Predict the structure.
Amino acid sequence: MGSYRPGQTIDTLVDRAIEGARSSGSVEVDKVVLVERDIAYCKNCMACRRDGQAQPRARCVIADDMQEIYPLIEAADGYIFGTPVNMGHVTAVMKTFLERICWVFARPGSWPLPGCPQPRTPKQRKAVIIASSGLIAPLLRRFCDEATPLIKRTALDSLNARLVGRLYAGAVEKRGVEPYLSKAYALGKKLAS
């Protein structure tokens, strides 16, 4: 959950998606609230990128809370990514998180260009994305949402997670979060199915 405001739109919609996932049977969920964690910026040292290519997870040299989060990511079969769209992009804390998982879970591949990330693991996973904007209505999303494509690419290229659904909660300052609650629940059910 990449919002800076626990209890607000993204947090509420992620919780609703978790409820939907849990309604599908015995689903274990670990919710990671990024702002509550000590996550340092990537130093671009490339230690993870150069780490053993056959391993499902590379070693990151930064000693922070990501060391506790990496095993959760590795063990997961599916992911719910939630972020507000700020200035057209994911929040800074979500961007830092995505940078920190890229080469830990990816290795240099050969497509579309040599060196581009490809998943270290053959384990097939699924992902859903929940993004929100206070002002921009869903109709205008394509002009300002760079967050969803970034998360989608990172999930596929690093985690081998195929996107199975997405929700854009637009104009929530005017509409509120209520119109999106059932959609978030359905998204969670779809992820768990």
